[in-house]
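dumping the sequnces here before i forget
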Amino acid sequence: MFYTASNAKLQVNGNEILASDANLSLGTSIQPNYTIRQRNTNDYSASNGIGGQLSFNYYLTGRDYFKSFITGQGEIPIKESQVLSGNFGGLTFDSGYLTSYSVNFNPNSPAIANATVTFFDQLSGVFSPTNEAAIAGTQVLNSRNVNVTHYIPIEDSTTSGVAAQPEEFVAGTYNYVAEVKPVYLMNETKPSAVSFGPKTVNMNFETDNPIGYLPIDGNTARISVDLKNDAEVVVENFTCSGLLRQRNLASAIGDYIKQSVNVTQGATQGTSVFVNNIIDSYGAAGCVGIGTTGSEGNI
Amino acid sequence: MAQIFYDKAAVQVRDLASNEGEVLMASDCSINFSNSISPLYSVGRKGPLGQLPSGPRIGDISFNFLTTITGSYFAQQGNIINGLASGIKNSTDSYASGVRITCAGVSGIGFLNSYSFNVTSNSVSSSSASFTLFGSGTFLPVSGRLAANATTQAGNVGTEGARASIVTGIGHGRYTQMPPIMNTVIYDDSVTPSSQERQTGTIYSADYSISFNHNPLYKIGQEFPTCTYYTTASESINVTEDIFDSGLTYTGIERSYVIDVKGLDPGLASSGSTGTFSGMKVKVVNAKQISSSVSVGLDDIIRSQKTLTAAY
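..and the predicted 3d for all of it:
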């Protein structure tokens, strides 16, 4: 029995995703067992747990559900939405983690995001086709209605670009990548925990005004994209505030000279961690370490 | 009210930078304006979420016109399209500004896509041109509404006050001659080199065309392009003769040709309004022959065709 794309609804944590395509893969880690003096074997054994990936492209319509996982997943304090459950046409998993997320901004095109959820479990349930009509009146955000604000230095100064030649942003992408590894205990095929590795956000943007300024230790830079709805209200924002890491210049016959900049941000936590006040034993606010404000510095 | 007869729907081309313009002797004109709305679908649902834009609005305008040769635009004898094509193909600047094209009150800034004309024995020469209308910044590709011209087309066509010269200022095959080096010349291999029999082709007609590639630069946050660049152009002449050029070479032979399109008044050809006018000139630089063909049909002689191309 074959089905069409309209028969398989995609849901993540119970929320329906307006995906243009979805790809669900499931794989084992089976390895052949060879013995000494043996070139052939029919003996296999699992070398790791079972798992898979759910990858899909979907239209941005407003506040994006997955963005909360960029800042929240794997961070302390642990939020409720750490784990993602998925349902694709009735086939479900319940131990998924957002491992990559990207948004493309192309001129005059619908804003489309791509998300990849990695899960460490088998699929359960049975495929149950649905027959439902599309949701009428859905507003999809378009790159025509965006506003880009930025700080991209062209020299060692606090100003961005050249005032007489403000940067034009042609197209770009917002990317998020997270490293998630399963932690298996003895006798477990489904991990009892996962460990979160580094999370990185970067933005690639094609701009004009080709220039070669790029300090060896980078330079602070920031690109922020506001997406507006038809009523010109900002309903979504993607910001990357970090270091200017790369510049690329490219030229091809019949095309204009393209310059792209890459801004990388290593910290994705929603709140900044800083020491505000120290409350001493008498309940009064004081400095960090009594007596460290003198000319001798911190003791 | 939009019942406008064709005599009130002149086609005018005007360069905004130099303010040079001409009302062409167009025989037809068509304007198209389209958007890129397409349905978006999602998995798990039957039917579209809606029909939404996936590209910019874009327009085009094309028209055929009689090859007027008495004007002078951009220091080039001939009609304004010929002057425009000559200016673009010889330009080393990539930035393109476009020209304003108006027909019956509807106008837009257009970038020349293609321009062609033909010269055939004993026939009036006709040209055609097509422009792409990208729009710019906040300006729509196509704007205005249908409105009749104040005067009839016959009253304001050509350069200002030049109606008297229009009658004889149209390219014609009677006095137009292709440059002699365009004629195919072949030699008979069966005779000794010192007495090789030489044959020179007779040209019956020539079709000239040039096409331009423009590259609009779109950016996010804006529908219409920030600017438009001219990149490359390719030019070709299809020549109809009575000799089949079997000596087509592998590397091609590079030649430059100057086509001098003349009208029916030989006197105008010698005096002209500028004193040096001899017709509308089109210079094809470093052209190479890329093909040779021959065909025959009932009640006709064998005719051969060769294609010469040049690139800019």
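Residues 152-165, 269-276 of chain B have pLDDT under 50 and may be disordered.
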